[in-house]
Amino acid sequence: MENGKKARASREIAIYGQENVEQTVRIAKMNLAIHGLSGDIRLGNTYYEDLHKSIGKFDFVMANPEFNVSGIDYERIKDDPRFPYGLPKSGNRGTDNGNYVWIQIFLSALNNKGRAGFVMANSASDAGHSEKEIRQKMVEDGLVDVIVAVGPNMFYNVALPVTLWFLDRGKKKTDRKNKILFIDARNIYRQIDRAHRDWTDEQIEQIANIVRSYRGENGKKYQNIKGLCKVATTDEVKKAGYSLNPGRYVGVTDNGNGDEGNFGEKVKKLHSELKGLTGEAHELENKIFDNLKKLDI
Question: What's the longest Cα–Cα distance across the chain?
């Protein structure tokens, strides 16, 4: 950022944060200082402590939480107003997993026009039982705005592919109320080295422009692109079991050989070919044994 922009940003935005590791708090403050910013970053366990009294307070929330955390003491937070959709259940109705605890913490912090963007484990997009019930309520309440699938090796500390979630409390009053934009960006990346990838500025702009056109923010008409992006209705998401996996909606790009990328048809075709090859292998095996018998081997 240029100096003028840094000065303007420091006057126009207020930054708040909470972190459970003291060293990470110091790193966050240092990172803000490097960019000419400051913030109220506090030390505390976000599961059990809401140090900023955050409910309904913020215009924007950004986060990269720890995935699939187990061992959260749900008894301590069972009456916490940050979890309006309830808490994930363990046992035969779910798993001991904190992903939907995080998601509701981010959602509850937004004001009535607030937006949240965060990184989440892929498993959260299709999780079942009580987690599915929470996801269903969020979809039906028109809070989920954009979901982006990201390929592996995009983070230095996480090699697995991830999903970017974008929530928007303000979309309820727009024509996007009953729609969700799905983007499959797994094939968009720059290879840095064997184990690391990133997005170039141009690639980030490409993805951002898809979102802007969907939201009507850049004057360009949005279009679905097979294999890349699709706007799905709430009814379509319902029919897909409230899955938020972009691959369920965007489809697969035609490879130019008349193959429309129908996974089910591909499997049937491959299975048929495998059966044929297996039959041929058995026939050849019998012929070999017959010939060995004739040779008394």
Answer: 94
pTM: 0.82
Contact (Cβ atoms closer than 8 angstroms) between residue 232 and residue 243: no
Look at the block and give the residue holding tokens 């058995």.
Answer: 282
CA distances from 269 to 38, 106, 158 (A): 59, 45, 36
What is the average pLDDT across 159-174? 95
Residue 46 backbone dihedrals phi, psi, to 5 degrees:
-65, -30
Which pLDDT value is given to residue 288?
Answer: 73
Domain 56-250 has CATH 3.40.50.150: yes
Question: Can you tell me the distance from the alpha carbon of 14 to that of 24, in angstroms, rounded to the nearest whole number?
Answer: 19
**Residue 163 β-bridge partners:** 120, 149
CA distance 214 to 230: 10
What is the pLDDT at residue 252?
A: 83
Q: Give per-residue pLDDT as tens, 175-205.
A: 999 999 999 999 999 999 989 999 999 999 9
H/E run at residue 191 = strand 190-193
Mean pLDDT taken over the chain: 88
DSSP letter for each residue of 232-296: EEHHHHHHTTT---THHHH-----SSS----HHHHHHHHHHHHHHHHHHHHHHHHHHHHHHHHTT
Radius of gyration of the CA atoms of the chain, in A: 25
What the block records as the tokens of 156 is 């230095």
